[in-house]
Fold this sequence. Notes:
About 5% of the residues have low confidence. The protein has an eight-stranded mixed beta sheet with strand order 5-4-3-6-7-9-8-10, with helices on both faces. Strands 1-2 form a two-stranded antiparallel ribbon. It has ten helices and ten strands. About 40% of the residues lie in helices and about 15% in strands. By secondary structure, the chain is of the alpha/beta class. A hairpin with a 3-residue loop joins strand 8 and strand 9.
Amino acid sequence: MYQIKEYIKFLLNSTNQHGVHSPFVYNFITKCLYDKTAYEAYTKLLDYKKTLENSKTILQITDFGEGSKTLDAHKRRVSKMAKTSSSSKKDAQLLFRVSKYFDFKNSLELGTSLGMGTYALSLANSNATITTIEGCPNTSAFAKSQLENQGVKNVEFLIGNFNDTIPNIKNNQFDFIYFDGHHNKQATIQYFETLLPKTHNETVFVFDDIYWSKGMTEAWEYIKNHNAVTVTVDGFHLGFVFFRKEQEKEHFKIRL
């Protein structure tokens, strides 16, 4: 019910590119978010999702996050995970467009899951370096094997609790960080603040499921109001965060 109520409010308060005066944000909306190009990568992402949905594999799950609202806590069918907890086709396509548009060279993903988002980032730029962290060893191993079958070679898979793993990441800076795990207010804020030192002026953060719960929405509000943040774009399912010092502090709600 919470998500339904929030979505109704979002529809009433959101807009499209009209009325956006910032050239940077206007271009982001029109040339990336609203890009209607039928990229070849979309077919590969769809085929990958179908492969997952047809998988007979059952994984023993270790979950450090908030868990799933629909899946068993300990044993999960990959086919069901692909239909309920993995990145949707629309979100994967959007991640691909965002990575391609900004041409990220160095990306970090918190929450590999079955690798849909990871695959989208890899397809956007095969020369990029992608680091992805997953708390569950079995899920990570499965995603790694599946992506290797797709010819993906530019991803480093890390396994462990985010709190333990993030401080040991070797990279000093990232162009892009995708927060897609542990949907909890305090954890989300903690990861955000821990990773702030690894940003530069052009870094983009994307937060998944910002209306997953009241706590996640409160975390999103905290992030929006943080001094380091200049521009945010709320697309309901995903929240985009920019740190460009040349931008005025503005927040947008954009229908995707």
